[in-house]
Amino acid sequence: MIAGIGIDVTELARIREAVAKHPQFAERVLTPGELRQYHELHQRRAIEYLGGRWSLKESFGKAMGTGISAAVGFQDVEIIDQDNGRPLVTKSPFSGRVHVSVSHTDQIVMTEVILEEKTK
Known about the structure:
Layout: E1 2-11, H1 12-21, H2 25-29, H3 32-39, H4 43-64, E2 78-81, E3 87-91, E4 97-104, E5 108-116
Antiparallel strand pairs: 1-5, 2-3, 4-5
């Protein structure tokens, strides 16, 4: 049974600006595991990755009904790319299955999160 759905659209220019203005921006948004993947990427792809994680976590907060808040923070959710590029949620405060999707253009990233309750 679906427990929540969240979507988000983020402009990659906003992510570039945040990184330029706040050198610790990536460390605030990304978990240590995500940071390892982020640091392996170069320029445009790194911004896409960081923007994707920002947007996925925003989508997750919306699916939970809390937004990014004291209830669900950026460090509470971890999404690691598998070898085939598929993003996989490896940490979250939700006890059921978490399905995620991320898509990029040159200018935006769009994400969706579906929370699925455990079946009995």
